[in-house]
Design a protein that fits this description.
Elements: H1 3-33, E1 43-46, E2 51-53, E3 61-67, H2 74-88, E4 95-101, H3 109-116, E5 124-127, H4 130-139, E6 144-148, E7 154-158, E8 161-165, E9 171-176, H5 181-191
Parallel strand pairs: 3-4, 4-5
Antiparallel strand pairs: 1-2, 1-5, 3-8, 6-7, 8-9
Helix pairs in contact: 2-5
The structure holds nickel (II) ion.
Nickel (II) ion binds near residues 67, 74 and 158.
Length: about 190
């Protein structure tokens, strides 16, 4: 009775290791798709130059997109979808559309203010120090990198996901950039 279990120990350990590995990866998936691993506190500055933190938005949904104002295509298109969806819902006060720049060198508050005028009055634009924005991007698992353009200047490569955070500040769901305004509005309406 003693021998057999001892002989099994290496196998049990091996199986435990496999299970741990599976759980580890399942944890990753849950983090991306549903659990509390996306998002977190941030301390940034809005388009009026006022300090804003995630706590300012408690009690309201945050619809968050990371990008930059010099983006030629994906950012304006995605912000346009968010803006259209908000209009379709009648600009509900319970949802705050938030644009967080990943290009703070160029996206100062005044630049964000001008840029966001095209997308409606509800939008909050956030910028800040490299460190503060890097922390926020990491918390939301946003990838970004500077890439130089021929002839000078640079563009920012960045992941393009819209995040919905709940009134408690916790992750609710995400939408990829291919979503249209109707689908986004429909999904948001169901959650309000
Ligand atoms: Ni972009």
């Amino acid at each position: 009775m003693i021998r057999t279990p001892l002989a099994l120990v290496p196998y049990v350990l091996a199986i435990a290791a496999v299970i741990a590995g599976v759980l580890w990866h399942a944890g990753d998936l849950v983090g991306t798709q549903g659990a509390a691993m996306v998002g977190g506190p941030f301390a940034l500055v809005d388009q009026e130059g006022a300090a804003r933190s995630d706590r300012d938005f408690r009690g309201r949904y945050m619809l968050i997109y990371f990008g930059y104002t010099f983006c030629p295509d994906v950012c304006p298109a995605t912000l346009g979808v968010m803006s259209d969806a908000m209009q379709k819902l009648g600009d509900p006060k319970r949802i705050v559309p938030i644009f967080i720049t990943i290009d703070p060198a160029r996206d100062k508050p005044a630049v964000l203010k001008t840029y966001l005028k095209s997308f409606g009055p509800a939008f909050v634009g956030l910028t800040g120090s490299d460190k503060a924005l890097g922390d926020a991007a990491r918390a939301y698992r946003v990838y970004f990198a500077k890439h130089p353009l021929p002839g000078g200047g640079y563009a920012m490569d960045h992941s393009s996901t819209i995040y919905l955070m709940g009134p408690d500040g916790k992750f609710v769901t995400y939408y990829d950039e291919t979503i249209g305004p109707d689908a986004l509005a429909d999904d948001l309406r169901k959650r309000l």
